[in-house]
Design a protein that fits this description.
The complex is a heterodimer. Chain A contains 13 helices and eleven strands. Chain A is of the alpha/beta class. In chain A, strands 1, 2, 3, 4, 5, 8, 9, 10 and 11 form a nine-stranded mixed beta sheet that branches. Chain A is globular. Mean pLDDT of chain A is 87; it is low at 1-42. Chain B is globular and about 70 Å long. Classes of the chains: A alpha/beta, B mainly alpha. The A-B interface holds A 87-89, 92-93, 114, 181, 187, 222, 225-227, 229, 233, 236, 240-242, 352-353, 356-358, 360-361, 363-365 and B 57-59, 62-63, 66, 120-121, 124-127, 146-147, 225-226, 229-231, 233, 238, 241, 243-249, 252.
């Protein structure tokens, strides 16, 4: 018998083995279901097609590639081209020109809301994207949430113990109990919300924001504050001990802790935000793009991103598949429900530009 | 600064040689910059609304003042530290001279980002400098040297110093020591000798270095962003916020126009002073 024929037999012998294994367990099933179509059908759905995915680069996009795009390529035959990092100036220009080169884009919630007004995205095709499996809080006509993250109060575990540590935004503004320098996010959203919560405004009475009151509160700690613009800066400030408390994003705190930093985060009053997947208006590969969005909301895929980056899934089923060690860091952990609030993006869509100018002016004054 | 008499024959005979550089500049510089400047008067609609916005909101004026003050302070500090250094290099013997020039050029081999982060490590409150001073009992509480104006100045002076030293050196090395010797032998005391003889002779280097450092400083972005505090926002940082966060190309374009106008005026002004100094 020739080697060629032998190989053929081997290939055939592997197929039933895989389909049997798929029935055994959910964890194994996750991988096998992606492999099965390859063996079952010679022709895959999107053979020879391509789709361009743009995101934020770094570890985040690597995780998305690993968890979302590579399995999608393997099961459908489509080539997923990675591009980015997303820059809103560039993206808006591309979308307004009507000839986008990015099909699927990972955008923050504020860009979703401002883009909807200007009709920049395709409507999510619910015949391809199964939106019912997503938490309805994170589903929009023009986008599907893929991760939830939050601004939390972070603190150094070398400088504080469980009883002495800061426990609320009010503590962040309390120079008597917590003297020294602290770090704030260099962006008007979410700093106004944080200042108002610290000043005693109830979360459900927050919007429309009392802007004057917020800036007055911020003024009280301005001299003691360092303003970070990039996430790695927020990690560095904590790790080097330049500050011992301040505003940090949950996933970034987790990342620093994984690298040996002694940082804790408080879940009381955390401020949530969502990254959405949108499909560009007139996207050259619309159908493949919709199928990719659907694949990105699968529980196995979202759990994998959560395990890699501590960014919380929008699909409730994904939570069961997340490692126990990661769960405490996730914004959508059922234990934290009711402790935080989601930013009001309608408010920010209408006020971001004016308040950003005000923020820059306040810093300079 | 070239007179037209010299310029004309050069232009006619060697015009073709300039062509590759000209095409490159038009394609990758003039065209995109022109597009951005056009946007300052065409977005969201035709008109001067973006410039009115710059005048109406105090933040833009304050950032402009900041930019000029920071860049001016950096230039002055570079001149004060660079002048004696360039003088020493110009007067040094062959081997020492080469070694000193090498030392001035070393920073060019690493990126601005790396050097900026290095200053962070040195200057922060638990950084090398503060910890050493505390260990030796010089101070009790750390000095705040970063995330404020001091940090910005230290970082920018470090990066821009070579652009002051090299033009100064290239002028100073050609100054004949016989002039100062002659002045001294005629009875000029050292200070007068320096002010009346050496300083005027080295002034083209001072002007070139000042223009280079000041103009480069005006567009700085990463160093003030990482080493500065709340009050140290410069124009380039605002342009970044307008484009990347707010998508307002029109306002960003208007800011770019203001910055370019400022640079051009500075250039023209200092070039004129330079020409006058040379004619004397």
């Amino acid at each position: 018998m020739s080697t060629k024929a032998l190989n053929g037999i081997k290939t055939h012998a592997r197929t039933p083995d895989l389909s049997r294994r798929q029935l055994i367990g959910t964890a194994a099933g996750a991988t096998a279901s992606l492999v099965l179509p390859r063996a079952a059908f010679a022709q895959k759905t999107f053979d020879g097609k391509k789709v361009v995915f743009a995101s934020w680069g770094g570890g985040y996009q690597d995780a998305q590639k690993q968890a979302f795009c590579d399995p999608f390529s393997a099961s459908t035959g489509a080539t997923v081209v990675q591009d980015g990092p997303v820059n809103y100036g560039k993206l808006r220009t591309m979308l307004e020109s009507g000839k986008p080169t990015w099909d699927v884009v990972d955008v923050t919630i504020d860009f979703l809301f401002s883009g909807v007004v200007d009709n920049l995205f395709e409507k999510i095709d619910t015949s391809i994207v199964d939106v019912k499996k997503i938490n309805p809080n994170f589903v929009h006509s023009d986008g599907v949430g893929d991760i939830v993250w939050s601004y939390n109060l972070g603190y150094s575990m070398t400088d504080y113990n469980e009883s002495s540590r800061p426990k609320s935004w009010a503590d962040l503004f309390d120079l008597r109990k917590f003297p020294g320098r602290r770090m704030l996010r260099d962006r008007v959203a979410p700093m106004l919300e944080i200042a108002l919560l610290a000043d005693g405004v109830a979360p459900d009475r927050l919007y429309p924001l009392e802007v004057e009151r917020a800036f007055k509160k911020l003024e009280t700690i301005k001299k003691q504050s360092i303003f970070w613009t990039t996430n790695s800066q927020s990690q560095q400030l904590m790790v080097d001990g330049e500050v011992n408390l301040g505003v940090i994003i949950n996933g970034r705190a987790y990342d620093a802790v994984n690298k040996g930093a002694k940082i804790g985060i408080e879940w009381n009053q955390h401020i949530q935000s969502v990254d959405y997947l949108v499909v560009s208006k007139n996207a050259p590969n619309r159908d493949v793009a919709m199928a990719l969005v659907n694949a990105m909301t699968a529980p196995e895929a979202q759990a994998k991103v959560a395990n890699l980056m501590a960014l919380a899934p929008t699909n409730p089923d994904a939570f069961k598949l997340v490692d126990e060690a990661v769960k405490p860091w996730l914004t959508t952990n059922p234990a934290y429900v009711g402790k935080g609030l989601l930013t009001n993006e309608i408010y920010w869509r209408d006020n971001l530009k004016a308040l950003s100018e005000r923020w820059e002016q306040w810093k300079l004054a | 600064m070239l007179s037209f008499r010299v310029l004309r024959p050069v232009a006619s005979r060697h015009a073709l040689l300039v062509l590759p550089a000209l095409i490159l500049m038009v394609g990758v510089f003039v065209y995109p910059v022109g597009r951005l400047l056009l946007r300052s008067v065409s977005e969201p609609m035709w008109g001067l609304q973006n410039f009115r916005e710059l005048l109406a909101e105090p933040v833009y004026f304050n950032a402009l003042v900041n930019t000029v003050v920071i860049s001016g302070s950096v230039t002055l500090l570079c001149l004060l530290t660079g002048y004696p250094l360039a003088f020493t290099i110009a007067r040094a013997s062959g081997r020492v001279q080469r070694l000193l020039i090498f030392a001035v050029l070393i920073p060019f081999w690493s990126s601005i980002l790396v050097r900026t982060f290095a200053w962070l490590v040195l200057l922060q409150s638990r950084g090398l400098i503060n910890r050493t001073l505390i260990d030796f009992g010089v101070i009790d509480t750390p000095i705040t040297m970063v995330h404020n104006r001091i940090g910005v100045l230290v970082g920018m002076v470090h990066i821009l110093l070579p652009f002051m030293v090299l033009p100064l050196y290239s002028v100073m090395v050609r100054i004949d020591a016989a002039y100062t010797h002659a002045a001294a032998s005629l009875g000029a005391p050292p200070v007068k000798n320096f002010l009346r003889v050496y300083l005027p002779l080295s002034s083209p280097g001072v002007i070139n270095g000042t223009v280079l450092v000041f103009v480069m400083g005006l567009g700085y972005f990463i160093t003030p962003a990482l080493l500065g505090g709340a009050g140290d926002t410069m124009i380039a940082q605002l342009i970044e916020v307008e484009v990347a966060d707010l998508g307002r190309w029109g306002v960003a374009g208007a800011l770019a126009v203001v910055l370019m106008f400022g640079v051009t005026v500075t250039f023209a002004f200092l070039a004129r002073i330079g020409n006058q100094a040379r004619r004397k």
